[in-house]
Amino acid sequence: MLVEVKVPILAESVSEATLANWHKSAGDYVREDENLVDLETDKVMLEIVAPHGGMLKEVKKSDGANVVSDEVIAVIDTAASSAPSAGENREAAQPEPFPEPYQVTKIREHPKHALSPAVRKLIADNDVDVTKIIGTGKDGRITKADVLKFLASEEEPAQEAPMEPIAAQRAVAEPKVIPMSRTDGRPEKRVPMSRLRARVAERLKDAQNTAAILTTFNEVNMKPVMDLRNKYKQAFEKRHDVKLGFMSFFVKAVVDALKQFPVVNASVEGSDIVYHGYYDIGIAVSSPRGLVVPILRDADQMSFADIEQAIAAYGEKARDNKLEMEDLLGGTFSISNGGIFGSMLSTPILNPPQSAILGMHNIKERPVVENGEIVARPVMYVALSYDHRIIDGRDAVLFLVSVKEALEDPTRMLLDV
């Protein structure tokens, strides 16, 4: 029996998608639910799996092809599922150690954990023996950072190690390169823009063209938060099995300020201002495909532990290209943390249709005046970009002051005062 492989039904906001990478070719035998091809939308990377086992009789759409919902991309002959040709090695029809793609002879099954597709691809591309890599993820899981660290130890000098996190993201995110030649001998390369990158560019340019974006700044003395965090971080991690970071304090401070200034949580629809009675906070996360913004829904009802656990889970899903469409839809306000990359100050751009975004930056010891004396304090510059069409400067400035005051006296957030 011939079975069609179709593109899954995409979200209403996604008109088409791109076949990023086929993992099987026509004539290959596939198992039911085995990943056949990666489907890239402007939001997430999805996997299209085999609906039945059999031989992949025909591939109708090649890598890079644009497809729409319910479009047929391949055909499987289920009658050939247990009948390999005489010339084939019988072992080829046996189940593979992993259900995910990327066939590499040196990949052997980890005794405790399966490798994610993103980690598997990185290992395959670099022909790495996975048994030599020490996993630092949860319960010893091998992460993408572990693979990159192993590669760096094999090839890079030790003094370049501090640059590894940023270099690692660039290395993983680099798409296919189209070779170019120039008569003057100066090298160039042309890289196709990913669908995610193209969509981000379109949305951000629309924001600049549509919204009247202004940015206001302030500085926050982070010592009270740091003292509170240092005092309880070990007990917090022991009880909740997650580290206590700074982001939960910022989310709590933002939600409290949004309650005081609801227009900052609003959005523009045509000639109307829509005030949202809920607080869905987008957290900008770096992924191999670029910047994504998963949503903490009903953040006002979340505890510090809930926030940290949700952010950690989103971070892991982003690194492994496992974010789902539902993770990214909606949002009434966003927070971006450029400080983890060393940014001192920036003007974050709006994430439409949201009307404001908070930018966090690095923490540096700076001189401040307290009680008439100059003392050194860990200070963070914060920035609020906002749509001046609906948010007045007064509300924007007071909103940021409210965030500052909550962070400089974090016990107020715990006592709700």
Topology, please?
Blueprint: E1 2-6, E2 17-22, E3 29-30, E4 35-40, E5 45-49, E6 54-59, E7 66-67, E8 72-77, H1 117-126, H2 144-155, H3 164-173, E9 178-179, E10 189-190, H4 195-210, E11 213-221, H5 223-240, H6 247-260, E12 267-269, E13 272-274, E14 281-283, E15 285-287, E16 290-292, E17 295-296, H7 304-319, H8 325-328, E18 333-337, E19 356-360, E20 363-370, E21 373-387, H9 393-408, H10 411-415
Parallel strand pairs: 14-18, 18-19
Antiparallel strand pairs: 1-8, 2-4, 2-7, 3-6, 4-5, 6-8, 9-10, 11-21, 12-13, 14-17, 15-16, 19-21, 20-21
Question: Mind explaining what this structure looks like?
Answer:
This protein has 417 residues and is α+β, with helices and mostly antiparallel strands. It has 3 domains: 95 residues, OB fold (Dihydrolipoamide Acetyltransferase, E2P) (Beta Barrel); 91 residues, E3-binding domain (Dihydrolipoamide Transferase, Irregular); 220 residues, Chloramphenicol Acetyltransferase (2-Layer Sandwich), CATH 3.30.559. It is 29% helix and 24% strand. The protein is built from 10 helices and 21 strands. A hairpin with a 2-residue loop joins β12 and β13. The chain is globular and about 80 Å long. 31% of the residues are buried.
What can be said about this structure in brief?
With 417 residues, the chain is α+β, with helices and mostly antiparallel strands. It is 29% helix and 24% strand.
